[in-house]
Amino acid sequence: MPETEPWEYTLHIPNDVRGVTVSRRTLRLILTLHGLVGLVDTAELLATELVANAVRHTKGPAALRVRWSAGVLRIGAWDADPEPPRPPQELAALGEAEEGRGLALVRACADLWGWQPLTRHGNRGKYVWCELAPSVARPLAL
Predict the structure, then answer these.
(1) Distance of CA 20 to the CA centre of its chain
(2) Burial class (CB in 10 A: 0-12, 13-18, 19+), 129
(3) Quick one: pLDDT band at residue 142, thresholds 50, 70, 90?
(4) 70: left (phi over 0), alpha (psi -120 to 50) or beta
(5) How far apart are CA 96 and CA 128, in angstroms?
(6) 21-64 pLDDT per residue, tens
(7) 106 close to 54: Cβ distance less than 8 angstroms
(8) 83 pLDDT band (50/70/90 cuts)?
(9) DSSP string covering 26-94, please?
């Protein structure tokens, strides 16, 4: 059973594609330890897409942020590039394309998603996030 108290984790990763795997495995462990096993598969997919975008499309460090509050899981990725992400296309329109599916998958599988620029304390970049609520059973939209 999920916990009722809020919690939050941040994992800082270098600009290295291996950080995607580290992020995914760390997220699985966090969710399992907090009793959110039912969200693991979808959350892993979403975190993988968000972190992969942060690592592949920017030159600086990145971070995965995972937060549980008021019965909602928020997964986000920070990167040092302040440019907004490209708007996601419809999954059906992408066909068998090997690129450009990340945010389309996020939009299809998350309850809510968005992004915001960050300019606090001299830091620049953006934070792309999505939310999942465990009360909604959802198949992966692949």
Answers:
(1) 11
(2) buried
(3) very low
(4) left
(5) 24
(6) 999 999 999 999 999 999 999 999 999 999 999 998 888 899 99
(7) no
(8) confident
(9) HHHHHHHHTT-GGGHHHHHHHHHHHHHHHHHS-SS-EEEEEEEETTEEEEEEEES--SPPPPPPPHHHH
| pLDDT, tens digit (0-9, with 9 covering 90-100), for 93-132 | 545 555 556 788 888 889 999 999 987 766 689 999 999 9
Please give the single-letter amino acid code of residue 70. Answer: A
Count of other CB atoms within 10 angstroms of residue 102: 21
Bin 35: left if φ > 0, else alpha if -120 < ψ < 50, else beta: left
- Is the separation of the CB atoms in 31 and 39 below 8 Å? yes
Judge whether 28 and 44 are in contact, CB under 8 Å.
yes
Residue 138 has pLDDT above 50, yes or no: no
